[in-house]
Amino acid sequence: MGTTTSVAAKSVHLRDGLVKGGRLRTWLVRGLLVASVCWLFAACVPRDGHVRSYVGITIPTESISDHVAGRMDELGIPGLSLAIVNDGEVRYAETFGYADVAAGEPVTDETIFEGASLSKPVFAMFVMTFVEDGSLDLDRPLHRYLPHPDVNGDPRAERITARMVLSHQAGFPNWREDRIGGALPINFEPGTNYEYSGEGYQYLAMVLREITATDWSGLDALFQERIAEPLGMKRTVFIQNDMTRRHKAVPYDADGVPVDWRADPVVSANESVFVAAASIHTDASDFAAWMIGVMARSVLGDGAYRELFTPHATPPPDGLDVSYTLGFYRPEIPLTNLYGHGGNNDGFTSFFLLDADDGWGYVLFTNSEYGQEFGEELLLHLFAGPSRTTIALTALSVFYLVSSSVVLVLRTVRRLLSAAYRPLRELRSAGPAGDLIHEPITG
Asked: What are phi and psi of 184, to 5 degrees?
């Protein structure tokens, strides 16, 4: 999720127990938190010109716009597109800055950005459509569908599954171009460790292409048919077309210099390739339509969503404890149900976060190197509002500690009572009358 400012910097660093504690406790404590903060600030009544923060407090949209514009200046972000979802609907969608600084061309609703690794959760949803129709098994070795052409000499490749790929446990590096010589090694026994890998996602895309007997363009057409069209995503593709090329923002490096991606032979070679891990092109409002589809459990059945949201791997520590599901990061923030991802291609960075049960989330795209950093930081602004997040997170932590203590006491009492009544239960179930329980004495 990056090495930048995180919620952990503002909260008591608590981990564990969100799933184990049960959804009831999560929502009970969140309800207490929201009720308390609303009582303190009387700020939970939705009204025009406001959006709902994660804990339910209203935030003026003007303050969001001012904050975004100010941070863009401080970080040197040329252009940005932001959408905020409340109750399963886009309640705020704004564009800022320039798509092309030299030409003075502003970012508009039509501006297209590279989503980079925001491709991964979208691709994971696409993969699950093949799991549901029976043409792909998450736990069947991909070798049985299509042997990987570059690792056939390593027998470990025959044990790699789609589940391992989607959770970054295949053992591949991120991209072979990052390694001298361009070889594709397997760095550990598949399924036993975590290593973030675009190569694994691309192998799975090759398998889908094989299963469907199509080419890369055909696979993108299937994505449109199975995901984009049902969710109303009219401007999202994995392979560029005339529309995306015409409206695509100019990317800028960390110093604000335009990135000449055409000079990169790897990028040029992959321009017509469905790059499952990195080639999505979209805008904030269109991507928000996908987020809303996830929140509504559209396209897929409940079982597929359970698979997508189940934690499978633990990435290395990076400021905030996270787990990785099938395509999503899950930040371990107490009493939340958040899923998200960041994206980072040369000159394009992005970030999204959503609560799959609460209908809340946000997504931003930039033509800079600082969008993922700003996206993570923006949670501090949107969690409970710019002036209340610290108080809200402190209250959340206190409620979490109290509820955890109560649960621990109740479990201890239950164990003690169970131990005390065990002899009586044994007597009652010991067998036929007369073995241990005698008839009353008369006489």
From this structure: -115, 90
Question: Cβ distance 212 to 145 under 8 Å?
Answer: no
CB within 8 Å of 319: residues ≥ 6 apart: 1, 2, 3, 4, 6, 8, 9
Neighbouring CB atoms inside 10 A of 138's CB total 17
CB contact set of 107 (below 8 Å; sequence gap of 6+):
79, 80, 81, 95, 96, 97, 98, 99, 249, 367
Q: For residue 392, give the nearest of 404, 410, 379, 405 by alpha carbon.
A: 379
Reported pTM: 0.80
User: Is 242 in contact with 315 (CB distance < 8 Å)?
Assistant: no
| pLDDT tens digits, one per residue of 186-221 | 999 999 999 999 999 999 999 999 999 999 999 999
CA–CA dist 354, 210 (Å, integer):
33
Report the distance separating Cα 75 and Cα 378, nearest Å.
13
Distance of CA 168 to the CA centre of its chain: 14
CA distance 276 to 270: 11
User: Could you tell me if 133 and 153 are in contact, meaning their C-beta atoms sit under 8 angstroms apart?
Assistant: no
Query: 18-63: per-residue pLDDT in tens?
Result: 333 344 344 444 444 444 444 344 445 456 799 999 988 899 999 9
